[in-house]
Amino acid sequence: GLCSGIFLNLGILFYFKYYDFFIENINYVFHTDYTLKHILLPLGISFFTFQQMSFLIERYRGNAPHYPLLDYVFFVSFFPQLIAGPIVLHSELVPQLQGRQNRRFSPEGFYDGATLFILGLAKKVLLADSLAVLVNAEYDNIAMLDTPTAWIVIVWYMMELYFDFSGYCDMARGIAAMFGFRLPENFDSPFKAASVREFWRRWHMTLGGWFRKYVYIPLGGNRRGEYRTVCHLLAVWILTSVWHGSTGNFLIWGMLLWLAIVIERQLEALGVMAVLEKVPGKLLCRLFVWVYIPITWVCFG
pLDDT tens digits, residue range 90-102? Predict the structure, then answer.
């Protein structure tokens, strides 16, 4: 039951998102000439696939009730967050649907939702899209960039990604609030982070929570020694890389982040992180995050 359901969901995701990537690598390694299908990717397939798998796992664990079909379909296909998140668990959404108070119009809820939607729209249109024009223009002339300009473009790209993604999530949460539903927050001021590990606890929190709950902890988390913990983190970051995209660039991105987190763990064990954090405002730690994270995101460009 559980294995069949997960295999079916992952199989569909693999076909639409990774089939051509797999065939390209087969052709490259074995010098074959299999035809690529250039399959169009269904909108939001990664998000609703993960939501379905989370429900299957919770049903298997006995933590999810048997919902009516329409309630389940609503949970999987709720349109505001379907395309780019946040990833929602059944326990966060379906009880709200079944609660009678959420079936009534709330002027206060509509006002709060509209405010959040406008804020997200401003992030997306005024900030992210404006930065995108600058970034794309410089990326088209990358050979002409000097070092200072290249660093400026890297930081612009980082901010573009943040305002684009967090803006969309704010819009999704705002639309949901206008309908009387509360979606989980997906960002918690990530650029205040003083370590790469803390950054990823604050960025795309629902994805990190999903992997922590359904991959990292079931593998053993940090309960089986440092070596096993590092291996569990490696598994999580490989899967995170694959989730974001099907090219080698994303794998490089994931390995850079995994490496930084492992090094931070070792520095923490040696007491070095405690010393660095004594600098007023954790300035050195935050400076490292502001340098390292943009470098990793170059792989997305």
Answer: 999 999 988 866 6
C-alpha 88/C-alpha 91 separation (Å) is 8
Which DSSP helix (H) or strand (E) runs through 159? helix 147-178
- CA distance between the termini of the chain: 40
**Residue 98: per-residue pLDDT:** 86
Mean pLDDT, range 15-42, rounded to an integer? 84
Whether residue 233 contacts residue 258, with contact meaning beta carbons closer than 8 Å, is answered with yes
Nearest to 172 by CA among 47, 301, 49: 47
Region of 21 (left: φ > 0; alpha: ψ -120 to 50; beta: rest) is alpha
Tokens of 248: 């080698």
Helix/strand/coil (H/E/C) assignment for every residue in 247-300: CHHHHHHHHHHHHHHHHHHHHHHHCHHHHHCCCHHHHHHHHHHHHHHHHHHHHH
- pLDDT tens digits, one per residue of 187-211: 999 999 999 999 999 999 999 999 9
Helix (H, G, I), strand (E, B), or coil: what is residue 5? helix
Among candidates 139, 140, 141, which has minimal Cα distance to 157? 139
Active-site residue list: 244
Sequence-separated (6 or more) residues with CB below 8 Å from residue 84: 44, 47, 165, 168, 169, 172
Q: Lowest mean pLDDT: which of 110-124, 253-267, 276-290? A: 276-290
